[in-house]
Design a protein that fits this description.
By secondary structure, the chain is an alpha+beta fold. The chain folds into two domains: 12-167, Butyryl-CoA Dehydrogenase, subunit A, domain 3; 175-296, Nuclear Transport Factor 2, Chain: A. 50% of the residues lie in helices and 16% in strands. It is built from twelve helices and seven strands. It has helices at 12-28, 31-47, 56-80, 104-107, 112-118, 123-134, 139-146, 150-167, 175-191, 194-198, 225-239, 286-289; strands at residues 92-93, 201-210, 222-223, 243-250, 253-260, 263-272, 277-283. The protein has a seven-stranded mixed β-sheet. The longest helix has 25 residues, at 56-80. It is elongated. The termini are far apart.
Length: 298
Amino acid sequence: MNTALAPTAPDPFTALRPRLFGIAYRMLGVRADAEDVLQDAWLRWSRQDTTVLQSAEAWLVTVVTRLSIDRLRAAKAEREAYVGWWLPEPLVEPLDEHTPEAAAELAGELSVAFLYVLERLGPEERAAFLLRQVFDYDYPDIAAQLGKSEAACRQMVHRASERVQQARARFDVPRGVHHQLLERFVAAAHSGERAAIEALLAHDAMLIGDGGGKVRSFPHPLVGAFRIANLYWAQWRRLADAVVYRPVLLNGEPGLLRYLHGQLESAQALVTDGERIVAIYAIRNPDKLAGIPRTLGG
């Protein structure tokens, strides 16, 4: 007689956690804030009579979305007072590994450049845009999740899409090509040849740094291949072998961690059109680097 027990179905919250985290993180751009939202949602879920729910997913997505909207409204005031440019806290993992959290729900539309553009949107507008364009929910679902009419949700998504398209240059570049370009950039940065670095940058390339007032950073975007190349060249000239780059997967795309004297100094997301680097987002605020696993090493 076979006494083996049939496997029990996973709790809906556990099964949906990657998607719920994906929504909260894209809304807030900070891992700890997203985790706090999920913890609050779980507490509400644990007290909910699930037998009366038509859809556990709809209930959980609604709760997480509304909690994220509330938290983002509070964060907006803090970010307006933020010193310098605000960039999201990076999600970093080795290039050759994929955690469950980095699977389907975190695979697309997660880049630092994308989240930087989303900062231009209001909390409800951001939520409507993400639910429709990233998570592919229908408008009746979005209307229920936001407590708005379908017409209002369509208008918010349309308006947000226009603003995102205007502010964002999008390139569909194979990951292998992206990674190879980053390897060439690292080699050029270690070569001490300013011209070699400049050759890999688009003439109107832009660098945005986030020091958060904790470390020095540019108060304005640094624009132009020569100026950016000169920055990396000057750092090599001053520090030489003390600078080490580590290729990683940064918010779902190939990126770099930079170490100075063995200490993590920045996480760098480099946007490319497939031939040149068109933008660099350098996250230097130590508070945003603290969550990067030490196992990634310098």
